[in-house]
Amino acid sequence: MSAIPDLESLHARGAAQQPSYPDRAAVDTAVQKLRTMPPLVFAGECDDLTEKIAAVTRGEAFLLQGGDCAETFAGVTADNVRNKLRVLLQMAVVLTYAASVPVVKVGRLAGQYAKPRSSDNETRVVDGQSITLPAYRGDAVNGYEFNEASRIPDPQRLVDVYNSSAATLNLVRAFVTGGYADLRQVHTWNTDFVRSSPAGQRYETMAGEIERALTFMHAIGADPDEFRRVDFHSSHEALVLEYEHAMTRIDSRTDAPYDVSGHFVWIGERTRQLDGAHVELLSRIRNPIGVKLGPTTSADDAIALAAKLNPDNTPGRLTFITRFGAGKIRDGLPDLVEKVTAAGLHVAWVCDPMHGNTFEASSGYKTRKFEDVIDELQGFFDVHRSLGTWPGGIHIELTGDDVTECVGGGEELAEMDLGNRYESVCDPRLNRVQSLETAFLVAEMLRDA
Ligand SMILES: O=C[C@H](O)[C@H](O)COP(=O)(O)O
Ligand SMILES: C=C(OP(=O)(O)O)C(=O)O
Ligand SMILES: [Mn+2]
């Protein structure tokens, strides 16, 4: 771990997936502004999360990481943030109670505003005319609206990312410490549309059991503070170098650099080049970090990434988030896990069952089948069980709302339903019922792990 490399030297590595800003002076102004802003998270909180992920690495805890594919500035509302938090709290309770395993809770929120894209451009037919514009790269970079002005990268948006993340995190902190996350509220999280679904009813039964257990604890005089609040951490993909670099600061306690834009940051599948800018920057910070590993990852790639990103082999520092796809995980994952384990590397293994299972429906919507998501999760658990390693967690794109973006699940959403309420500006998310169903299914897998 050494000093922070300068931004120019990072760009000199030919950083992938960066915005092409037309006005460098405006970029400098935004970066200067960000450098003066206070940290969004404290280094000590990042260390706490590293400790918790170390328990995952040892097979003593399970990581639940979830949230939008892409947050939007317009989505920073009390309802939206609360709904997301609520579904994550419900999932965490299901996993903790049904599998008797401590759950480390990490939101894909308060910073998840920048998107890598498979194409630099997007073509749409507007009024019978085919129009090609720069791709939307997340609210951190440009506007979703399909017109030329909106798609121009604007560096002032990076300052907006900071402000939106601050507002989100402030609300999340208030919710998780101010009574909303109190375990005695388990029933009240199960409101509105979710309550009548089979998963909601199953949750209701479980919440009743938890409530009786809490009443019993209270009666015998045990009422620990842990029942009233939860530890919740933020995370996002560290993508736009200007932003992550400006938010990287030297911690006064340890003299070490931390990226104080979020507790946990990860490197995406498209930016994990060993000699690339993202790996370089994240190798220097001391946060807990993740790397997405797709089906083309060789065991040597993973081992080299671990050597660069976690040379001291510190447990909890490095999480490998595999995203192979349901059809590939059973063949592809064993070699990776086996060789990384044989090399003595301490990593947390987490399954992202979303990004290897995306396809385009005939209506043009990007979607995923709930059954593929569950199949990949089952494959992940099967592989780890057969190798004797710990399936450390799940990384899910989800929302607390009743959207129609992924097909299947108990509600049997069909492709023709997608248009009813498709709100994601990037990838399709599990809705609240599908998320809760996933938690129950994963709890069963976890019980057998
Ligand atoms: O999560 C997001 C990536 O940006 C996404 O999977 C790539 O999507 P695209 O192929 O639509 O660019
Ligand atoms: C872009 C993403 O994933 P990946 O890097 O795995 O494709 C994502 O998590 O939204
Ligand atoms: Mn995504």
Automatic annotation (TrEMBL):
<dbReference type="GO" id="GO:0008652">
    <property type="term" value="P:amino acid biosynthetic process"/>
</dbReference>
<dbReference type="Pfam" id="PF01474">
    <property type="entry name" value="DAHP_synth_2"/>
</dbReference>
<keyword id="KW-0057">Aromatic amino acid biosynthesis</keyword>
<dbReference type="GO" id="GO:0009073">
    <property type="term" value="P:aromatic amino acid family biosynthetic process"/>
</dbReference>
<feature type="binding site">
    <location>
        <position position="397"/>
    </location>
    <ligand>
        <name>Mn(2+)</name>
    </ligand>
</feature>
<keyword id="KW-0170">Cobalt</keyword>
<keyword id="KW-0104">Cadmium</keyword>
<feature type="binding site">
    <location>
        <position position="108"/>
    </location>
    <ligand>
        <name>phosphoenolpyruvate</name>
    </ligand>
</feature>
<protein>
    <recommendedName>
        <fullName>Phospho-2-dehydro-3-deoxyheptonate aldolase</fullName>
        <ecNumber>2.5.1.54</ecNumber>
    </recommendedName>
</protein>
<feature type="binding site">
    <location>
        <position position="69"/>
    </location>
    <ligand>
        <name>Mn(2+)</name>
    </ligand>
</feature>
<comment type="similarity">
    <text>Belongs to the class-II DAHP synthase family.</text>
</comment>
<feature type="binding site">
    <location>
        <begin position="269"/>
        <end position="270"/>
    </location>
    <ligand>
        <name>phosphoenolpyruvate</name>
    </ligand>
</feature>
<dbReference type="InterPro" id="IPR002480">
    <property type="entry name" value="DAHP_synth_2"/>
</dbReference>
<keyword id="KW-0808">Transferase</keyword>
<dbReference type="InterPro" id="IPR013785">
    <property type="entry name" value="Aldolase_TIM"/>
</dbReference>
<comment type="pathway">
    <text>Metabolic intermediate biosynthesis; chorismate biosynthesis; chorismate from D-erythrose 4-phosphate and phosphoenolpyruvate: step 1/7.</text>
</comment>
<feature type="binding site">
    <location>
        <position position="427"/>
    </location>
    <ligand>
        <name>Mn(2+)</name>
    </ligand>
</feature>
<feature type="binding site">
    <location>
        <position position="323"/>
    </location>
    <ligand>
        <name>phosphoenolpyruvate</name>
    </ligand>
</feature>
<keyword id="KW-0028">Amino-acid biosynthesis</keyword>
<feature type="binding site">
    <location>
        <position position="292"/>
    </location>
    <ligand>
        <name>phosphoenolpyruvate</name>
    </ligand>
</feature>
<feature type="binding site">
    <location>
        <position position="355"/>
    </location>
    <ligand>
        <name>Mn(2+)</name>
    </ligand>
</feature>
<keyword id="KW-0464">Manganese</keyword>
<dbReference type="GO" id="GO:0009423">
    <property type="term" value="P:chorismate biosynthetic process"/>
</dbReference>
<dbReference type="GO" id="GO:0003849">
    <property type="term" value="F:3-deoxy-7-phosphoheptulonate synthase activity"/>
</dbReference>
